[in-house]
Amino acid sequence: MDLATKIMQAMGYPGITIVILMENLFPPIPSEVVLPFAGFMTTTGPMTVAGVVAASTLGSLLGGFILYGLGAWFGAERIERFVERYQKYLTVTPKHVRQAQEWFERYGVYTVFFCRMIPIMRSIISIPAGLVRMNLLTFSLLTVLGSLIWNGLLVGVGAALGASWPLVSHWVGLYQDVVKIAGIIALVALAVWILRPKPRRDQ
Q1: Which end of the chain is more exposed for a tag (fewer CB within 10 A), N or C?
Q2: How many whole angstroms separate alpha carbon 145 and alpha carbon 60?
Q3: Are 36 and 165 in contact (CB under 8 A)?
Q4: Is residue 202 in some structural domain?
Q5: Is-contact 74 35, C-beta < 8 A?
């Protein structure tokens, strides 16, 4: 993490693009830490919030393209085997990959937009988009829109908090827990609806 912040401090906007690109490929670099720090940097130097958001969104798009390409090139089985082998370093499991694919198959292209605002899934969702060879222009548009919201929020809060920017990662952790709980509730509700007794029709 120190390396990521040093790159951003040394290179400015290009450094932010590189770090966020890498964050998309390697989730151990959490955006909920590096983006608030980038926002904090706007209070101590010449960079602007708009410039940081643009640079980070470009990094998100480039990272999304790489994962999209991997999905299109390797296929589901080889990607799962790769993740299973290196999950210790990626902090991503084959279950995450399967879950992203299931979400994509169930909810379609809108998943690309909404998952850009969910930790871990924001990166992984690009893989199933590549697996089904989703229209690249649509993928790019939804990735940019979702990333703009996520990046803008974290950068803006980091700039507003100033030196207290590390608090953001705690809030994002709570948000992630809420998303998980909401997902579990939704799955339980769906199961109850599917398994509910069917009304008998009069003969």
Answers
A1: C
A2: 11
A3: yes
A4: no
A5: no
Continuous segment of H or E residues that includes residue 193: helix 167-195
Query: What single letter denotes the amino acid at residue 79?
Result: I
Q: Which amino acid is at 29?
A: I
* Residues near 147 by beta carbon (within 8 Å), at least 6 away in sequence: 56, 57, 60, 61, 64, 116, 122
Q: Are 113 and 121 in contact (CB under 8 A)?
A: no
| Domain that residue 20 falls in | 2-195
Q: Would you say residue 55 has pLDDT above 80? A: yes
Residue 118 φ/ψ region, left for φ over 0, alpha for ψ in the -120 to 50 degree band, beta for the rest: beta
CB atoms within 10 A of CB 110: 12
Closest CA to 24 of 120, 91, 123: 123
Alpha helices in 27-125 (DSSP H): 31-41, 49-74, 76-90, 94-107, 110-115, 121-124
Q: Which residues contact 183 (CB under 8 A, 6 or more apart)?
A: none
Q: Is residue 200 part of a domain?
A: no
Stretch among 99-108, 141-150, 164-173 having the lowest mean pLDDT? 164-173
| Rounded to 5°, angle at Cα 186 from 185 and 190 | 115
Range scoring the smallest mean pLDDT among 27-31, 45-49, 65-69:
27-31
> How many domains does the structure of the chain reveal?
1
191 located within any domain: yes
Give the Cα separation of 124 and 27 in Å (integer). Answer: 9
- Report the distance separating Cα 196 and Cα 126, nearest Å: 35
